[in-house]
Amino acid sequence: MRPGSAARVQVWVGGQLFEAEQSLLVEHCGFFRGLFRSGMREARAAEVRLGALSAAGFRATLRVLRGERPALADGEALLQAVECAAFLQAPALARFLRRSLTSRNCALLCDAAAAFGLRDLFHCAALLVRDGPRALAAELLTPEARAYVAALRPSSYVALSTHTPAPGFLEDASRTMCYLDEEAGAWRTLAALPLEASTLLAGVATLGNKLYIVGGVRGASKEVVERGFCYDPERGTWREFPSPHQPRYDVALAGFDDCLYAIGGELCRSPVSSVERYDPAAGRWSFVADLPQPAAGVPCAQACGRLFVCLWRPADTTAVLEYEAQTDAWQPVAELRRPQSYGHCMVAHHDSLYVVRNGPSDDFLHCAIDRLNLVTGQWTALPGQFVNSKGALFTAVVRGDVVYTVNRVVTVLYTIEGGTWRLLREKAGFPRPGSLQTFLLRLPPGLLGPVAVTTPER
Length: 458
Fold this sequence. Notes:
458 residues, Potassium Channel Kv1.1, Chain A, 5-stranded antiparallel β-sheet
């Protein structure tokens, strides 16, 4: 070995020889860490033999440990990766598998994680199974997995309408948060907002089954509400938490990798490019890499364990970028030329992003949807037009394979099949005026709030 070169180790797995950096294996795998630090004779051997694992699974493990994103498309590849994550005690691989969960593989990974004792992967897969159709839970093989999934609570579709702080003695129904009772087909009141909270041009996101509200404005001068608010559905309580260092409104808020990200926004009617990250465990905000351009109301979505934003650029260009936490940088992913118009959002399903906008041109009664496949990098325009009166798609939320959309007239559910959206069913519209923010929360069992009454336009 040359002076200064990294020590390497040869590993025989399934009759195939692999060579890897010893430091990489020690850093990421408890098995190799224990082996090379044990002082045993095997620790000094030129080769290590792992007879219990598959060569394909170990190859995928090495790729993940080196920062790659291998495609584990079939069931056998996923099972081999789960086995390696458990045997090698590789948290990075287990985390990669959690980020790879979809409605197509969650039942398989739920059973496999239960069998190999990967509790975090098992829990995340079980949550996805619980949010899917009943047939998905029926696919589970182990009694442990079936019982665990049955004990979980499904996600509920929750909505907030526009509200600005008002004197406490004023009765204001818009200061309530509502959830969709799918069995009854009605919206019910979940909780009242704090008197000081504003949802007008605020950032709203969920993280760890808690709701966070950042920013918002009050008054015609758009004074920024400096306090942040967090709602815990388990306790039915609100608490305050610190606001970002830079005051901002019309900010995009995203819960990603156990942190909140406040992305862009406006201050004094000018867009800003700064981005801040909040660590709930530490209770602190810190600046991360700026957006490549100032932007407010930035659409964002998560797919394959990755965080994406959508920016509008001159010459009718839609640009999709990804935030890479390891390098603290925004990386370009794809661009699309489409006429820009008012209103837009972005949602994710499996390995695809869906960018929604008014269209064509300035037709506010219809929505156009473009799909970006993250594997191929190809854009596809969804066939047909989606009518706003049949669900305001600018507040779309995906649960399992179902897209939830809502406006004051009707709540519409679409199912995603083969990359296209098909009308599934319709329910009651949201009984509040103004723009909406929607999200998913797991609510306590037995909760049955009063039916939300319709409030007049102000």
